[in-house]
Amino acid sequence: CPVPADVDVRIIGPCIKSAVDNLGYTGPLNIIAIGILTDVPLDVLRAIYSSGIALHHVPTEMNGIKNVLYWWSTKNPSPTNFMLLSGERVFGATLESLASEGYNIIRSLFPYDANKVDSALNLSFTGEGCFFLWRSLLTVLRSDVDELEKNERGESALVCSTCDLKVDAKDFERFITHLYSKEHGLKVQDI
Known about the structure:
Layout: H1 12-22, E1 32-35, H2 42-50, E2 54-57, H3 61-75, E3 81-83, H4 92-100, E4 104-109, H5 117-121, E5 125-126, E6 129-133, H6 134-141, E7 158-160, E8 165-167, H7 172-179, H8 182-190
Parallel strand pairs: 1-2, 2-7, 3-4, 4-6
Antiparallel strand pairs: 5-6, 7-8
């Protein structure tokens, strides 16, 4: 789910929080960026993390993300609201599985989802749940950046699934050092 080039990555967490609040969803909010974090520039990771988004490194993109989603569901029993921002359609079955277990799925859409763009642009509700259009969400909220509150991080804000490592939320530099370490690299090669 790439950030558009003209968007300051530091506003992503606050924008998502504001949009969810505006839709009437209440309660604690955890935002987690999941992916192969070594493929993301360090300054982008630092900015994303500073906006209140937790980071979770996975060894493989699709299966790693699916495993984290199912792990998350074991820690957060339904009924819970769940939103996955991803352009990958492969996660549809995972979301359907979570919906069948009682999770309220807030769907995300991208510009190529032409049939749903109108409802997404209005951040409106449909029969299939609330839809977000990623680029549109950031555009709509961009002007309100100064008023957005900083999101609180959950307890496991920095995770490397490759090495089964959880780092304290205050130790971003240790986490990044780990991702670029020889030991981590060897585990990635094993996978």
